[in-house]
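--- STAGE predict ---
source: upstream dedup step, 1 unique chain passed
mode: sequence only
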Amino acid sequence: MTLADLNSLPPAARAKTLATCCGATAWVTTLNGQFPFDSVAALYEAAEHVWNNLTETDWREAFTHHPKIGDVNALKEKFASTATWAAGEQGAVRQADQATLEALAAGNDAYEQKFGYIFIVCATGKSAAEMLALLQTRLPHEASQEIHVARGEQAKITRMRLEKLLV
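--- STAGE serialize ---
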């Protein structure tokens, strides 16, 4: 899809398309209301600005639109609209050994219990061991610190998905 294609979509169709990049309703609604864009760079800048000015509740909503790292069943069932992207983003997890997968599962559970949302990481290009190390590094964070780290990871994911959308 080109930027011209995205610009010309009816608002409802464009909102559905934007939601594949970020699941926060406020992000989709606000960004959708700013169309059309003159350039891809302007779209990326607006997308980031909107994201950074949302509330913690909005950020948490976006996190619910991701499967847990390594959760292949969730990719297939709940996240069908973004499963291809998420599977590619988490591709290295399929290469992990059993011990790493088990440690990721345990770490994911501990993270979710502590912070109230799943572990969000921009997984593209990272091995399962690297993601596990990041999870273990972030788990001791205070909640007020971690929400901003997670927000930043979601911003990276959103940007990458916008870039994939506009190929």
